[in-house]
Amino acid sequence: MRLRLRLEYDGGGFRGWAAQPGLRTVEGSLGAALDRVFPSWSRLAVAGRTDTGVHALGQVASVDVDGGPAVERAAEALNAALPGDLAVVAADEVSTDFHARHSARSRSYRYRIFTRPTRSPFERGRSLWRLRPLDEKALAAAARLLPGEHDFRAFTPSQTEHADFLRTIESAAWQRRGEALELEITAGSFLRHMVRTLVGTMLEREPAELERLLGGRPRSEAGTTAPPEGLYLVRVDY
Amino acid sequence: MRLRLRLEYDGGGFRGWAAQPGLRTVEGSLGAALDRVFPSWSRLAVAGRTDTGVHALGQVASVDVDGGPAVERAAEALNAALPGDLAVVAADEVSTDFHARHSARSRSYRYRIFTRPTRSPFERGRSLWRLRPLDEKALAAAARLLPGEHDFRAFTPSQTEHADFLRTIESAAWQRRGEALELEITAGSFLRHMVRTLVGTMLEREPAELERLLGGRPRSEAGTTAPPEGLYLVRVDY
Q1: Alpha-helical runs (H) found in B2-68
Q2: A120 within 8 A of B8, measured Cβ to Cβ
Q3: Section B212-229 average pLDDT
Q4: Is residue B51 annotated as part of the catalytic site, yes or no?
Q5: For the segment A202-228, what is each residue's pLDDT rounded down to a tens digit?
Q6: What was the pLDDT predicted at A170?
Q7: Which of A200, B40, B101, B225 is placed for a possible disulfide with A226 were both Cys, Cβ 3.0 to 4.6 Å?
Q8: d(CA B62, CA B42)
Q9: Which has the minimum average pLDDT: A20-24, A86-90, A107-111, A132-136?
Q10: How far is CA A63 from each of CA A55, A59, A60, A207, rounded to the nearest angstrom?
């Protein structure tokens, strides 16, 4: 049977999603739990291959399993075998034409900035802390430029495996939540580092400059890549 | 000059407040930062001597300092010298008759229970996770019994340094916050382990049984002591 797993993880302890020999990764840790819970499994796929340090609140994986617990007990059984910084929030059976990556229509990310004058132990590793007051009006204006199709080559490393730099942003907006300011952004797919480099550029540049960069400029013209600890994969829609 | 410091800490990495040789404690870490920032300091006092693993969102300390930065820069200077799980949220000058412990009129604690069917990596070390549904009506009824003066000897270890077990609860109520249920409780002062043992007992016993235990019963008759990771010192009033 094919399972769809909804995953949460604190990315701080992982070298990203993709399994790498000798490194602690989300895929590697999930694979070890699948080994313990199911006699056999295959075709593990994921909606978003998150980078080192990036968190997930709504990552989606698909995997074919044989034997092992019934689907109603799968989440509990996997959680008992998973480390504390990785959890299966839900597991359900899906048809064999469902693929976590290929079937996904859109991904939604959040970038969290903690804006209090002093840092917080409870935000450590979970947000970018900015001491200086943020220009929330400029950030809102910058976010309004993003929806639609643009050439995002300025927002991904110049050494890249991407061949096509056009992406279509469905929505993008900053939300104030107490002492945090959060960018919520949805697109069919993203380039590597794209959300983090958009955030870094929004923090450093005027909206007019961002608009120019959306026309397909070299990476060197955009701003810095914001650190991974503020980034969350929050939802995948199918 | 005497400083009042408002402190936040993630208690998971500390063996409680009180300095102990060879152990990592909040008092010890704060003392090391004071050493680095001020040529001399003395009379460090604290409102609530939290136990191992207990968190603080609004701990208050007082300390006399000589030399070093101006009061406006004290929080920033101390934070630069403190570890990431301990922060000074605010520092201000107070008169020399202010004492963080003796001047405090009341302490407010929160006990956080995370109630989702599956655990969360982001709640790890920050709440008690309860798989089973909670009887929220019974918990609310139990909390309503607490305000007023009672003999709380059932809710503190039988080997104790306390001589007087009478305490007066000003307010106590459970609040639902999303997927969490939180007890907010305020009193002039608390016995050691008192909030955690009240929570453990509320989770295990009927309200009528709790009421009986408030009349001064041996520790053995009350419930278990809930784990420290759900407990936060949230506010001290003067």
Answers
A1: 26-37
A2: yes
A3: 97
A4: yes
A5: 999 999 999 999 999 999 999 999 999
A6: 98
A7: A200
A8: 9
A9: A132-136
A10: 21, 13, 10, 42
Compare all CA atoms of chain A with the CA of B119 and give the residue at the minimum distance. Answer: A87
Candidate from A9, A75, A124 with C-beta closest to B84: A124
Which among A10, A79, A85 has CB closest to B118? A79
Chain A positions touching B230 (Cβ under 8 A) are none
Partner-chain residue, chosen from A87, A116, A122, that has the shortest CB–CB distance to B121: A87
CB pairs under 8 A between A and B: 58
Name the residue among B236, B232, B210, B212 with its Cα closest to residue B223: B210
Instruction: Over range B135-164, report the average pLDDT.
Output: 96
Asked if the Cβ–Cβ distance from A87 to B126 is below 8 Å, we say: no
pLDDT tens figures, B47-85: 999 999 999 999 999 999 999 999 999 999 999 999 999
For the record, the structure tokens of B148 come out as: 């007023």
Cβ neighbours of residue A81 closer than 8 Å, sequence gap 6 or more: A32, A33, A36, A37
Cα separation values, A51 from A194, B113, B130, B217, Å: 11, 31, 31, 55
Q: Are B188 and B167 in contact (CB under 8 A)?
A: yes
pLDDT above 80 for A25: yes
- B135 Cβ contact partners less than 8 Å away, ≥ 6 residues apart: none
SS3 B209: helix
- The length of chain A is 238
Quick one: angle between helices B26-37 and B71-81, nearest 10? Answer: 120
Contacts B118 to A, Cβ<8 Å:
75-76, 79, 87-90
Please give the Cα distance from B228 to A183 (Å, whole number): 34
- Find which of B119, B126, B234 to mutate to test the A interface (most A CBs within 10 Å of its CB): B119
CA distances from B123 to A10, B112, B113, B130, B196 (A): 10, 10, 9, 12, 18
Q: Which of B57, B88, B120 sits opposite A87 (nearest CB)?
A: B120
Give the per-residue pLDDT at B47: 98
Q: What is the mean pLDDT of residues A162-174?
A: 96
* Positions of A marked active-site: 51
Residues of A in contact with B9 (CB under 8 A): 121
- Report whether pLDDT(A98) > 90: yes
Q: Which of the following is catalytic: B35, B51, B66, B135?
A: B51
- CB–CB of B10 and A121 under 8 A? yes
Say which residues have a Cβ less than 8 Å from residue A137's Cβ, sequence separation at least 6.
Answer: none
